[in-house]
Amino acid sequence: MATLFTCRNSYLVFNPLLKENFRVSLKSIQSSKLRSVLTILIIAIGITSLVGILTATDSLKALMSENFGKMGANSFSIRSNFSEIQSAARRSRTINRRNISYNQATSFVENYPVSSVITISATAINNATIKAGSEKTNPTIRVVATDENNLGFIGARISRGRNFHPRDVESASFNAIIGSGVASSLFRSGDAIGKVITVGAVRYEVIGVIESQGATFGGGADSQVWIPISNARSSFLNDNSFYSIGIIPLEGTQDEAIDKATQIFRSIRRLSPTDESDFRVTKSDAMMEDVMKIMSYVTIAAFLIGSITLLGAAVGLMNIMLVSVKERTREIGTRKALGANSKTIKQQFLFESIVIGQLGGLSGIVLGVAIGNLTAVIMKTPFVIPWIWIISGILLCLFVSIASGYIPAVRASKLDPIEALRYE
Fold first, then answer.
1. Using CA atoms, how far apart are residues 206 and 198, in angstroms rounded to an integer?
2. In whole angstroms, what is the distance from residue 324 CA to residue 334 CA?
3. How many angstroms separate the CA atoms of 207 and 211, rounded?
4. What is the pLDDT averaged over residues 53-58?
């Protein structure tokens, strides 16, 4: 009981002192508004850049996870190997061209024994301008030559119209499916279904529009046009075109399917057991890992940019606190003469530094989340609240403010009251 009574008395004595120090700190900040606002602004800019970029990055990650999730965890692709690194054996024994040909792709489809959904595709035009009447797109549209299974492989959905039918591919029809971005650019005032677009010098009828997938690397499905691969072979593709094969095996058979696919395609490419594979097999989850790795680099870069800005803010905050100590030397002397001890003086200046740091941090967090999600809206990615980065920003500002204010606070607490009262 005696101990409890002592603790309560100590709390009652300390708590009013804590409030008084906090009040004095706020009054001091108000008395030097310009310097305080500038310091708060520097801290806010650092936190804004940090939280803003990381919010946009988290939003983009969420979209990537969603899009790759639509592809299915079991899917994988066979593509040309673009690696320039070759062994001496490979240089001395080149069997195939670097590209996968159409005949090799169709041969794989005919001979692959594992029950799967298989699609063949190729880039017909990489940076095309699509026209419809007097309207045209930017020259950034990717035209994809493919079959009826490609949309399922990439996880795209038809929002209006229909997908290719096997008859469209067999008859080399002049039908096309367009992304939502292409549709909004060419047909602002009406539905695109049944309308005619021009790809290069060839006219196609729009039979389907893809549901928007938001911002992705390379523009994504929103900035693409699909045409039947049989039609593209007569209009845009040739023997040097690069074809790719997409495979969606039955659930739980991915490893077996990949091993069999590698074996079959090595045979089609006429590779001996000692030859290195001159093609690459890529799992959808491996592609996801590559994208996330790139995003992690963006996160690190954002953190470094924000940290450098906060370092400048820390220097500025320390400077303003040192100036504040010098300007208020007589005030410190007066407070010490009236009974304030060194601990109380140090606490007062630390409070002042922490208040400035947290005001800057909170302002930066609000702006950062707003800017990050505004970017997400523009890119059509999900809205996110980055709680981890919000908490990290608060703790980071607390660390910066304590680190910046500690030296000035110690210097203020060590002032001799007699000398301080004499200070002019």
1. 10
2. 15
3. 13
4. 76
